Amino acid sequence: MTERRWKMADFSMIPPVPCPCGQARRAFNGVPEFPGTIHITEISADAKRHYHKTLTETYVFLQCEPDAKMELDGEIIPVKAHQSIIIPPLVRHRAIGRMTVLIVVLPEFNPADEWFD
Known about the structure:
Radius of gyration: 15 Å
Strand content: 35-45%
Number of helices: 0
CATH class: Mainly Beta
Mean pLDDT: 95
CATH architecture: Sandwich
Number of domains: 1
Shape: globular
Helix content: under 10%
Largest sheet: 6 strands, antiparallel
CATH topology: Jelly Rolls
Strand order of the largest sheet: 1-2-3-9-4-7
Distance between the termini: 51 Å
């Protein structure tokens, strides 16, 4: 049998890990063909403001409570399901309210690149 060239992740089988936003399930770490990682993150109501020095995150909001918001460099904006935001390096950010977010992280996620003021 030949090795498959494609990769698949079953997020229901990936154990969640704590993150500044709540709980994240992270896939595709160490896949040479993909220079990033993909996360499904359950945002808690008390996400911590943080930033990354090298990572760009693209949030795709899958589910949001009606009062869900994002804080981006001090600006608070409402968000809803099916919207997306690109968060480049050095942008201080946090989610406000409960939501489920698919996050595409480029380059590959590195937990050492989570910074707090």
